[in-house]
Target: GDP-mannose 4,6-dehydratase
Amino acid sequence: MGKKVALISGITGQDGSYLAEQLLEKGYEVHGIIRRNSSDSTGNLAILETGYHNPLKKVNLHYGDVTDSNNVDKLMRKIQPDEVYNLAAQSHVRISFDIPEYTANVDALGTLRFLESIVKNDLVKKTKFYQASTSELYGEVQEIPQTEKTPFYPRSPYAVAKMYSYWIVVNYREAYGVFACNGILFNHESFRRGLSFITKKVVNLAVKIKKGKMDKMFLGNLYSKRDWGYAPEYTEAMWEILQHDQPEDFVIATGETHTIKELVEEVFVNLGDSVRWEGEGLEEKGILNSNGQVVVEIDPHYFRPTEVNLLIGDATKAKEVLGWEAKTRFKDLVKIMVSDELKSMQ
Model:
């Protein structure tokens, strides 16, 4: 029996790069879809030696885009993957309010294109499909904590698009017998996160502030609560979901929740300082106790038109069925991210 073949959309992102590394370690032949970009977007894959003419290359990269049905179909026919991990998305919640149509095209219809290709090309008995669902589906939460049975109440174009993806996965599973699964992953972070995401932004800017490279950072809602885990553990869960003997949907989470404010405080603690807060509302400021420097101010630009105030997941099913549970907790996650950020700026 030859190597298992995996196709990853969104391979250049945080999750895609970790997943690619893990699948290679498991002996997979790994293919990834990348969009044409005038600037290099493969930084997270540097460790995998991806050059097209590099005889040591470990990942097979294909130009494509999940908004292009013909391209998705062509790649599926050519690669004939055993497993597809659809991680491609316009994944920034705030920005989805600015580009809702594009977000829907990528995050909703992109999923449909893969599923339809599996059915159309007679890959139902061969190809397993993983869909990157999100805790943002819960939005205005209907119960605490959130489980696989908690009703959805999406609060952004991103979350609404992901809701379509969730249900089209369920529909193709039930209608056509596709081995298709949703991983409802709560927030998961690492050094490889993009700078527009709050954890990476706070860590990166805090390190720059402490190094004297900038004065302050501007943030939005300090009081929204999130369930933050460590990305490599969550990509391992993706694989475990597809190894289960039947297709099911799973919440992947730590079961802890913390505010943005707590994130800021913990980051500065790891940098040998502490933050106190003064003022209220738009006038609230974070001030370093070491020298009285204002390092955090509020900018309404970062507020969402509809806010998600609290997310906390219950991953009991994943533990009982898959044997998966989060090992890295909030304080350890922040410690890892600050350490990696400091190393990158040496």
Q: What stands out?
A: The longest helix spans residues 100-120.
